[in-house]
Write a structure and sequence with these properties.
This protein is an alpha/beta fold and about 150 residues long. The protein has helices at about 40-55, 55-60, 75-85, 95-100, 140-149, and strands at about 10-15, 20, 30-35, 65-70, 90, 115, 125-130. The model has no long low-confidence stretch (mean pLDDT about 95).
């Protein structure tokens, strides 16, 4: 994983509508970048729906959420619509952003990883789940975020 305390790598990726979103668009607020293996897979769906159900916890902390996987823009659009996800999903089809954040797994898929970036673009928190078949439950994720902020 990327080291804490360093400047987060700049990136621009298409969202579920094809609009380009850059990390620099979020300067001035905290951003939680969530790398995940794939849309509509059992664990990723449970993870992102858990975060959807508790999205106000991110809002209360002034945190924007960006989900990133290697899936296509169209896959993200269908996934976000199907599960009514209230946060932005970004398509990293060439996996360059996952590589830049050192969040690529050994099989070439995104790890299930979390990077909290502060208002100035510095990484406050960076870690990945040890097993790809589990995810960080909301209460544990928030505890880590609160400890890092």
């Amino acid at each position: 994983m990327i080291a804490e305390g360093v400047k987060a790598p700049a990136f621009s990726l298409p969202d579920a509508s094809g609009r380009m979103i850059s990390l620099s668009d979020c300067i001035g607020q905290k951003v939680l970048v969530i790398f995940y293996p794939g849309d509509d897979t059992p664990v990723c769906t449970a993870q992102l729906c858990d975060y959807r159900n508790n999205v106000l916890e991110f809002t209360r902390r002034g945190i924007a959420v960006l989900g990133i996987s290697g899936d296509s823009v169209e896959s993200h659009r269908l996934f976000a619509e199907k599960h009514e996800l209230p946060f932005t999903l970004l398509s990293d089809s060439d996996k360059r952003v996952a590589k830049a954040f050192d969040a690529l797994g050994f099989l070439g898929m995104s790890q299930r990883a979390y990077v909290l970036v502060d208002e100035t673009g510095v990484v406050l928190l960076a870690y990945s789940d040890f097993l790809p078949v589990t995810y960080q439950p909301m209460k544990d994720l928030l505890a880590r975020i609160d400890a890092a902020s």
